[in-house]
Design brief:
alpha/beta, 7 strands
Length: 201
Amino acid sequence: MIFGRSERGKPPVEPVTLKILVAGGFGVGKTTLVGAVSEIRPLRTEEFLTEAGRPVDDTTGVEGKHTTTVAMDFGRITLREDLVLYLFGTPGQERFWFMWDELSEGALGAVVLADTRRLEDCFAAVDYFERRAIPFVVGVNCFEGAPRYPVQDVRRALDLDDDVPVLLCDARGRESVKDVLVGVVQHAMRFGAERRQTVTT
């Protein structure tokens, strides 16, 4: 089956679509993660950083970064003939956070990418998903030269609930990113089952 078409003689299949958000601070690797697994050329809304934005764009730790996402990144993965996953990378800078509410509508779950050199940059994303009861995992993007910490130390630093998965990953690696996305889906399924059980008891 080619996406959007069916084999000769078979009726077209209308796929079920799932949405996962990829959030986190500025320069943490969201655009890279979406691009690592998308089967299509990702839609990117990046613009160059300017002198006018210097007072509000903190590039500490990511001095080599020259562009920023101003709306979203978008990628797609066809898991089965009848199941398609859409990835939406959120803008990382505070002045673009108004986009988050629209992007999160109908999301199955989220990945909060973290950089151990700037853990505080993902507090806002963690808080956002906790407040809206959207299941999420934390993906610690293991940058070269960044200090490595045990998962439990990252969990304590971010004040995460015990049931929130913390996964080490490389946002450039397809297999590594796939493992994180599987983690999101599994966590979302557990989260949904627990909520249904709470409602019925």
